[in-house]
Specification:
The chain is of the alpha/beta class and 838 residues long. The protein contains 33 helices and 25 strands. Strands 9-16-15-11-12-13-14-10 form an 8-stranded mixed sheet. An 8-stranded parallel β-barrel has the order 18-19-20-21-22-23-24-25, surrounded by 6 helices. Strands 2-1-3-4 form a 4-stranded parallel sheet, with helices on both faces. Helix 1 links the parallel strand 1 and strand 2. Helix 13 crosses helix 17 and helix 24 crosses helix 25.
Length: 838
């Protein structure tokens, strides 16, 4: 099979292209990247040695296709060829095709078994196919009202009508999911808001979908034209059926913000209560310097377009970094705001409009970009829905980021030397996500609302905020003492002593409550009737374990070791692994650490650890323990590192994807060989280290009592178990709705596993996504789980849920859940049965 190499100045860009391409063919085609350089100050660049290693990693006698972005990437690729043996060099082809479109077309052609010439032709023709699909966009066309490409009469159009049920409709996060789903398919997706009688717009445009103004209860018409139209519509139906993953019971406003606001008294500034809490501190102004844009004539229009594309690529990297940091600080749900920011940068309608302005009007990139951003912002402002009008903040945020990169302006500095209240006319979501709550004690702005993304992030960070106050605060001198109450929406400049005393008392009470919540998170999770359940963390990096301990984790129930093997051209050495395992164990300070051995295959392929032949269904193929047993040297290297790290720590080994007793015995035999080698070499390790297995295959449940006799513990992986029980690939949108861990069939598997483990006297935990759902806690408790392992941010909520439950009630609810007919029935049962107690 033809191998693919992606060469880019940006590692983030290359990783994104590889992920997108790999998803198109479910990882069947070997893809390697060579991107970025090892320079923290300036990571953009290319390295010929790295390119050469990538070529070697995916080399095949069928040929290797190399795709590159601009400038030195081409030079590095040409130089890299010189490092290869002559016989290999003749089979490596450098291709001028566009990076993203070319990669997608190439992997699809390679997966189909085409030869290198055919794969290269498909890559070269990718942009033409995209241009045909997009159609022409006039420079005078509106970014949000551009012409819809004509459909192909040979491809019948399918259509569905759906009612939007999630509370806030297609706001930024659901709209991002809609667009991302639509973009996965070849078919042309169009959507119309029947309730508002809008025109059809393109489903792959974040701005067009968002400006449909879709609210709860609106009816949409969605059409799909193309070979995979049925699959595309089915995938979109799943999003609607699951409310885009949102809980309609809860709402973005905390209860404190729904209180009636009392009128202001003399000396008070009245604003909008946006984030609860009290702050008293000197003020510091934040006023980013506006970027002035001058339009001028350019002759090199292609160079100008490339300059805009380069700025957008870097902006995408920056937003990815913001997203990663926000996920760590505020959790994945709120960080998903930045998914919409990324999609804004990928909006084909917006990009085509900017491109056409540069080409036809011969204007500079700054002027073209500003024009299309202003046009999108205007389209949001003209919407009747006030909530959607506020998305202008997100448009401006992304627009200014690209403009800053185009003009060479330095990023605004929001780092404070000492604790203060931040005064500003407004804050963007990116600004707010970057705030340090230990330094920014409060936020006071002259604009904004409680439903803005900035307000949502401030609430998640726990920073008190009052928005929409009188503009006179912008004239305060830095250092002026201010007090604000995010619950009442009031602020005071140099408050009187009696006001200060009242606010200080309120702040102390609030801080005491917050401290108690943190203390509770670090206490054992015990039900009202005395049953204790261990709450561990699922982690995939050293930074994750630090967050886990900070959130009250009692140990690590799943260390995914795959991160050690990613983004490289060869497997990690024993010493590299040892250093990481020891560092994580050190942070845990003798808390349990369950290390899952390498689990690749399925949705986690690695180019340099190749199966050797394409698999029609990788999820049912050579993955997990099967791969490790077939590659004993890779397996032994990892086991040696784990054993060496076990000295003085509570480390356990967990084997993934176990389906038979034979596999367990074979793995234990190899473990014994490694232990004997270490003994012979005089290298210490914990001889009593416990060995457990992941229960995620139905056969493991069926023979659970036999497996329990072989190991020290079980950990149920409901993500994979659900798809195998329901015979539904969780990456296939047409059947993804079947893969629900609360389905009674899956719950019965959990029950059977727990019963077998307890009969053998071994503990059993659960580390799938189900464990992080507070709604499911009562079921899992009732089924008898000893341990729950969740993402670090979910630990406090799960512990709180356990504190409010009783074992007796949970067992009754679980027994009833096993008799239900569907996961929807189970959820309804939980909602009507569980009465929260303080």
């Amino acid at each position: 099979m033809v191998g693919i190499v992606i060469v880019s100045h940006s590692k983030q860009l290359a990783l994104g292209v590889r992920e997108l391409a790999a998803q198109m063919v479910q990882g069947e085609v070997p893809i390697a990247i060579a991107a970025g350089i090892e320079d923290p100050e300036n990571p953009l660049g290319t390295d010929p040695i790295q390119v050469s290693e990538a070529m070697a990693a995916v080399f095949s006698d069928d040929g290797v296709l190399v795709l590159m972005d601009l400038g030195s990437a081409l030079l590095s690729a040409e130089m890299a060829l010189e490092f290869l043996p002559e016989e290999q060099r003749q089979k490596v082809y450098l291709c001028e095709a566009p990076l993203v479109e070319g990669a997608i077309a190439a992997v699809v052609a390679a997966a189909a078994g085409n030869n290198i010439q055919q794969v290269m032709a498909e890559a070269r023709g990718a942009l033409a196919a995209k241009a045909t699909q997009l159609g022409g966009v006039s420079s005078t066309s509106s970014v949000v009202d551009s012409d819809i490409p004509a459909s192909n009469p040979e491809s019948p159009t399918q259509e569905i009508r759906l009612i939007v049920s999630n509370r806030l409709g297609l706001h930024a996060r659901p709209a991002a999911q809609f667009v991302a789903t639509a973009a996965r398919f070849q078919s042309q997706i169009l959507v119309r808001n029947l309730t508002r009688n809008t025109q059809l717009v393109r489903g792959d445009s974040i701005n067009q979908v968002t400006t449909l103004g879709v609210r709860q209860g609106h009816e949409l018409l969605i059409t799909a034209t193309g070979s995979d139209a049925d699959a595309a519509l089915a995938a979109l139906q799943v999003l609607f059926a699951t409310n885009f993953g949102e809980d309609n019971v809860a709402f973005d406003y905390p209860a404190v913000l729904q209180h009636e606001v009392t009128p202001a008294t003399p000396g008070e500034l009245l604003g909008i209560p946006a984030s609860g809490g009290v702050a008293i501190a000197p003020v510091v102004h934040y006023q980013p310097t506006p970027i002035a844009v001058t339009e001028y004539h350019v002759e090199d229009v292609e160079g100008e377009w490339q300059r805009l594309q380069a700025a957008i690529h870097i902006a995408r990297q920056e937003i990815q970094a913001v997203f990663s940091q926000a996920s760590f600080q505020i959790g994945d749900a709120e960080a998903a705001i930045f998914d919409a920011h990324l999609l804004f940068l990928e909006d084909p309608v917006l990009l085509e409009a900017a491109h056409q302005r540069i080409l036809e009007q011969h204007i500079n990139a700054e002027a073209a970009w500003q024009a299309v951003v202003d046009e999108v912002a205007t389209s949001y402002q003209t919407l009747e829905d006030s909530y959607l009008q506020e998305r202008v903040d997100d448009v401006a945020d992304v627009g200014q980021r690209v403009m800053r990169l185009l003009t060479g302006h330095a990023p605004a500095n929001l780092h404070l030397e000492s604790p203060a209240i931040l005064i500003a006319s407004d804050l963007t979501p990116s600004d707010t996500a970057g705030l340090d709550p230990t330094k920014v004690l409060g936020i006071c702005t002259t604009s904004g609302s409680a439903t803005s993304h900035s307000a949502i992030i401030a609430r998640t960070l726990g920073i008190p905020a009052v928005l929409g106050v009188d503009a006179q605060v912008l004239h305060l001198a830095d250092g002026t003492i201010m007090a604000l109450d995010g619950e009442s929406g009031k602020a005071w400049v140099e408050p009187e002593l009696d006001i200060l005393e009242q606010l200080q008392a309120k702040r102390e009470a609030w801080q005491t409550a917050q401290q108690q919540a943190r203390v509770t998170a670090h206490q054992p999770a015990i039900t009202r009737d005395g049953r204790q359940v261990s709450v561990f963390a699922n982690i995939g990096s050293i930074s994750d374990v630090q967050a886990a301990v900070a959130n009250g984790a009692e140990g690590v129930g799943l260390l995914r070791t795959e991160f050690l093997y990613l983004d490289r051209t060869s497997a990690p050495t024993e010493e590299e692994q040892l250093a990481v395992y020891q560092a994580i164990a050190q942070v845990l300070d003798n808390r349990p650490l369950m290390i899952r051995t390498l689990d690749i295959g399925g949705d986690k392929p690695l180019p340099y650890l190749r199966v050797g032949f394409p698999e029609a269904n990788p999820f049912l193929g050579w993955r997990g323990i099967r791969f490790c047993l077939g590659n004993p040297e890779v397996f032994k290297t990892q086991l040696r590192a784990i054993l060496r790290a076990s000295v003085g720590h509570q480390i356990k080994i967990m084997l993934p994807m176990i389906a038979t007793v034979t596999e367990v015995r074979a793995a234990k035999r190899i473990l014994g060989e490694v232990q004997a080698e270490l003994n012979q070499a005089g290298i210490p390790f914990d001889a009593g280290m416990k060995v457990g297995i992941m229960v995620e295959v139905p056969s493991a449940v069926a023979i659970a009592e036999r497996l329990a006799a072989e190991v020290d513990f079980f950990s149920i992986g409901t993500n994979d178990l659900s798809q195998y029980v329901m015979a539904g690939d969780r990456t296939n949108p047409r059947v993804a709705n079947l893969v629900d861990a609360l389905h009674p069939a899956v719950l019965r598997m959990v029950q059977q596993t727990v019963q077998a483990a307890h009969a053998a006297g071994i503990p059993v935990g659960l580390c799938g996504e189900l464990a992080a759902d507070p709604l499911a806690t009562t079921i899992l408790l009732g089924l008898g789980l000893d341990e729950l392992s969740v993402n670090p941010q979910s630990i406090p909520a799960i512990k709180q849920a356990i504190h409010q439950l009783s074992l007796e009630e949970s067992e009754a609810i679980a027994a009833s859940a096993l008799q239900q007919d569907s996961p929807e029935d189970v959820r309804e049962l939980i909602l009507t049965s569980v009465i929260p107690r303080a």
